[in-house]
Amino acid sequence: MLRNYLKIAWRTLKRNKTYGIINVVGLTLSITSCILLFSFIAFHIDFDGFHENSNQVYRIVTEQQRETLSYQKGVPSPLGDVVRNEFDFEEQIARTVTFDELQINVNQDLKFIEDEGVALVEPSYFNIFNFPLLEGRFTDEFKEPSKAYITESIAKKYFGDVDAIGKTMKMDNSVNFTVIGILKDLPNNTSQKAEIYLSYATLKEYNDWYIKSDSWGGISSNMQCFIKLKSGVNPEQVEAAMAPFPERYRPNSSNVHTYKLQPLSDMHFNANYGGPMPKRTLWTLGIIGVFLMISACLNFINLATAQVGNRLKEVGVRKSLGSKKGQLFWQFMSETALIAFSATCLGFALAFMLLPSLNELFNSSISSSIFLDIRILAFVIGVFIFSTIVSGGYPGLLLSNFKPIAALKGKLAQVSVGGFNLRRSLIVVQFVISQVLIIGMLIIIKQMQFNQNVDLGFDKEAIINIPVASGMEMSDLKVFKERISAIPTVESSTVCLGAPSSDGNWGTSIRFKGKTEPEIFSMNVKAGDADYVKTFGLEILAGRNISVSDTANELLINETFAKKMNYTTAQEAIGKRLKVASVDNMEIVGVVKDFHDQSMHSDISAVGIGSFNDVYYNFAVKVNPNNMSQTLKDLEGVWASMNPDAVFTYQFVDEVLATFYETEQTILKLIQIFTLIALLIGAMGLYGLISFLVERKTKEIGVRKVLGSSNSAILWLFGKEFSVLLIVSFVIAAPISWWLGSKWLEDFTFQIPIKPSLFIIALAISALIACVSIGFKSFRAALMNPVESLRSE
């Protein structure tokens, strides 16, 4: 019986090629999109899920209550030791310190910059995380300084086919270390990105601040602490035990610190602690996938019900010869299943082929092996079943329920065979989906354009950021600055912590002279020399710039700082003295105009600019953009002459700022692609539907033309129906889009207004798509010779 169903289904589809092709292509596009979206979502949902008992693993994080609540993924470096020594909650606890973009020297000639950096970890780290060893063993040797485990990829990169065990390398031109083990390559979806793991004891030689038992006074995001709880221990118990730590170890701090346990499964998604992929983003992508699937199924139902009239006699003959309702229903379902199966196979193959392009476009690393994952295969089967049932269910019931006599006589009204009332509703739903996606895309585009083009309050164009090399003293920094200043295309340079807006922020408490208590707000320190203002084009509103000095004794503040102190004028702040971190008696000598010191997600902070030379980590060099390649060669030449052992690296400041919005850029690209696919699916559906309507109205068009109707009147016969549906869908889509857009924009402190023009543009795009979809067939119908159209009937 099944074989017979499929044979008849194949013959039916061969007779109706347009119907079959439109449905196969539409379903293929939607299934391909759904598979790719599900793969993307599954990849991110699985982050860090490969570790054994990952539900027992937490990261200890810090909440800081000053003027506002802020979040820090780091903790004071002694905290891990205190928890280990005083309590018995954990199976394992491990501190890690990660330094990004460090240079590794394999030998005199081979030097690499490791973008993911180097992690210095305690031995228990490998008891918490599941990083299997390929060579070597986890032994007490890792408690000693200068011992390292590296991944298989790093070993091959540095040593080729030569055994890496026992080989010695140098980190940051300062610390030698020896490889004692080779780790299996880490999965792509892990938050632990480093591929070189040094023993924690190495910090004694490299940076001993992280191992001092009294280093409670500062929190660095580099320092993180992971804990694996014993079975049955609740995170709340550990948090309660850590509650007295701030008062005990930081009694003079103006910040109210609270230490919390963040589940490992939350790290990739929680934006408060630097998680790059909020879960609501994945929900959004999942909903888009559902929309695409529904849109393709609506096309199928629309075209199937439009075709019912052509199959009435077939149904009448079959019922007269004894066919039952169930047989007719399953006959139509077999046709649907054949289309859905073909689309599913094509969609799966297309998704597999497009995955590398998806990875390249979104800078992701989803492995093609994910298509062998049982969940992906189950999802594909589920999509096939869903599309078959949703697309074929109603038309199948419709066909199987006709009375044979009425069907043979052709007396069934169009409404009774699922006519325009149903199809109107389905078209409206499709238009709503398309317009919601278009408006959402336009809102994101406008916000991203705003982020890129808004006046940040400082110059960002043609400024090159060059990291300071390890071992460079203050005298070396001065010499390098003098030598690059001699390059004709260099307009200005400064040695600093970073650009005015960066993710490398140093927040600290301040206390004015004569006061016993620190201020309730913290200050964002922008360390820079006297040329910082000139290089970044900051505007001084009152007072003067800081003087040339090797020590921090003068300070520039911004307008927000002055406002927080309730100064009525900027001039009022000049001459005030305060203590910043451990630097006492600093004098405010000037006030600069506010600039965005963080991304558009955050408000402008109270900022202080001064010569804190112990955190001079970068050179910022403003250059003439003409002949940029020669300028970079000249800069590299000066660098090589002064730092022959250090690799020359640089990044443009505007590129650094663009990294603030990487997640939003990814979402924008995805929505642009899938909005285009949704519009294409909808356009194909409209084209198929108008084809059937033109065929159905051939005689009516001929009669109208004989009676004197113009071509424009014939075109309007088709256009007015879809125009009304377009307006109705817009009325539904507009408030939905406004609400969704407003919720998305809540993540930005500085945001665009949602203007009516965005909705008008979306309506115009939808109208254009509809016109193009139905225009060709409608135009041909209007130009048809009435004699031929009447004869064809």
From TrEMBL:
Keyword terms: Cell membrane, Membrane, Transmembrane, Transmembrane helix
Q: Any keyword Cell membrane? A: yes
Q: Where is the ABC3 transporter permease C-terminal domain?
A: 287-403, 673-786
Where's it found, cell-wise? Cell membrane
Sequence intervals crossing the membrane? 21-45, 282-304, 328-354, 374-399, 426-445, 670-694, 714-738, 758-776
Query: Its Gene Ontology molecular function terms?
Result: transmembrane transporter activity
Kindly list the GO CC terms recorded for this protein. plasma membrane
Where's the MacB-like periplasmic core domain? 22-243, 433-631
Give the domain of life.
Answer: Bacteria
According to UniProt, the name of this protein is ABC transporter permease
Instruction: Enumerate the Pfam families for this protein.
Output: FtsX, MacB_PCD
Bilayer disposition of the protein = Multi-pass membrane protein
